[in-house]
Design goal:
This protein is mainly α and 53 residues long. It is built from two helices and no strands.
Length: 53
C-alpha cells in the first residue's frame, strides 16, 4: 500500500452509523426477549440469534 488515506463521504459515514445502530438495537432486543421469554424452545432460538448478531 502506498499509505494514502481515502476520506469517507458523509453518506458512507451515515451508512456505517446506521448499520451500527441497527445491530446494537437488535442485540438489545434479543437480550430482552431472551430474559422475558418463558418457553425453552424460544430461548434456544434467541440464543442462536444473539450468536449471529
Amino acid at each position: 500500500m502506498s499509505g494514502t488515506n481515502v476520506e469517507l463521504t458523509s453518506i458512507e459515514i451515515s451508512n456505517i452509523w446506521s448499520s451500527y445502530l441497527k445491530s446494537s438495537m437488535e442485540l438489545r432486543f434479543f437480550q430482552y426477549f431472551y430474559a422475558t421469554s418463558e418457553d425453552p424452545e424460544v430461548k434456544n432460538i434467541i440464543e442462536k440469534l444473539v450468536e449471529f448478531s
